[in-house]
Amino acid sequence: MADHKLKLGSLTALVIGSMIGGGIFSLPKDMASGAEVGAILIGWGITAVGMLALAFVFQTLANRKPDLDNGVYTYAKAGFGNYLGFSSAWGYWISAWVGNVAYLMLLMNTLGYFFPILKNPETSSVSVWGIVLASVLLWSMHMLVLRGVKTAAFINTIITIAKVIPLFAFIVIALFAFKFDIFTSDIWGTNSPDLGSVMTQVKSMMLVTVWVFIGIEGASVYSASAEKRTDVGKATVMGFLSVLALLILVNVLSAGVLKQAELAGLDNPSMAHVLAHVVGPWGATFISVGLGISLLGALLAWTLFAAETLYVASKDGTVPAFFHRENKNAAPINALWATNIGMQIFLILNLFSDGSYQKMVALATSMILIPYLFSAAYAALLTMRKETYDKDPQDLGKDAVIAWIATVYGIWLIYAAGVQYLLLSMLLYAPGTFIYVWARKENKQVVFTAIEKLYVAAVFIGAVVAIVGLKQGWLSL
């Protein structure tokens, strides 16, 4: 299997490639829609500390628990039992492909700038032809991944290099166009009462910041395929710091080019319109091309992550053995089919609902909050038990502080997301329980412990409430 192993460069590119998808190209509008500059800076401060702590958590767990591959779900399973471990894998898997649906919708909106037939002229949503093209791209990606993980990872590395070029160009141009008086015109949003208090503004941007950082665990997902186990942690931290710098620069510099209300009123990809404001129409074309490349890379990376999650979870019976089948290129074929069929269904559903890029983003983000929280909580649990610290007790205090910061940040994110998306996520977690029962019976294991029955009850109660909310209209998807 040595020829399938991934080196540090490929692992880092997977982390960067998955984080730099469509989110950064929509960042100016998405942030300005709910917050002014002061709250945005506070939010980035919270995010930088929380996500850096989470990055260090994945680095620490990769080194201290080398036997736990595909860490996003195995950490939850090792720390909190089989059902919560499964729920973490299920939530991560759904988050990955729902996020891909969001990317495809954004890509069709971007291509609609050049080919209006891809957009509905009345609602500006994706048209039937847009869904058809998105489906063609989806199954083309499917065929590429079937060629094998290493081939797909190599292509992802090339795409990652290509898509950072327009980002660097935007940063340089925006730096020269930056006006301090625009940046400081209404720092706390006092002239925009609809934004609410500073705390309300900070909360409003939390799901956006998580969305643009989803993928930070990318190297952990592929820990079993890493050439060196220590490269997993290095790739995680290197990828995080690189993307953090790009995100903050894009967001802050845009706020010095256009005011909050102007940014909030832009269409996505808003970065294209910010650059067009500075240099003219060619700027929008330039960024739109960069976004197209970026989205293709993110689609590839997240298709890999989603399929790998189900595949690895099938090894230890967390999900049924059905998902463990490989083709001759060592690609997880059944896991891949399940992933892309789910995406296809959601693409078709968007024709019959008012689904939008922003709603898909929020749903994908809410689904991944629980896996992130369980990973951080497991790291905190290790420090409480002093497990794996026999040989280096001097690291215990540092690791405990980092783990608890990441855990508190995970709880804060669920609070900031709000009840609506927590309930919607329960609606997607509930069907997974039947897959879990299938796996447990297949392995002739006790299905639920006493405490797990309480977890299941809570999930299904939340799902029922979500169904009622959707029917009555106070919840929407």
Task: Describe the structure in your own words.
The two termini are 43 Å apart. With 477 residues, the protein is mainly alpha-helical. The chain has 20 helices and no strands. The protein has helices spanning 8-19, 27-32, 37-64, 71-80, 82-111, 128-145, 149-177, 180-183, 198-204, 206-213, 218-221, 230-254, 260-264, 270-279, 281-315, 333-349, 357-385, 396-417, 419-442, 450-472. Helix 17 (357-385) packs across helix 19.
The amount of helix comes to over 70%
Q: Write down how many β-strands occur, each being a DSSP E stretch of 2 or more residues.
A: 0
Structural class per helix/strand content? Answer: mainly alpha
Total of DSSP H or I helical runs spanning 4+ residues = 20
Principal-axis shape equals globular
Q: Determine the strand fraction and express it as a percent band.
A: under 5%
Rg, rounded, reads 22 Å
Order of helices and strands: HHHHHHHHHHHHHHHHHHHH
**Averaged pLDDT:** 84
Q: State the distance separating the first and last CA atoms.
A: 43 Å
Q: How many strands, what sense, and barrel or not for the largest sheet?
A: none
Low-confidence stretches: none
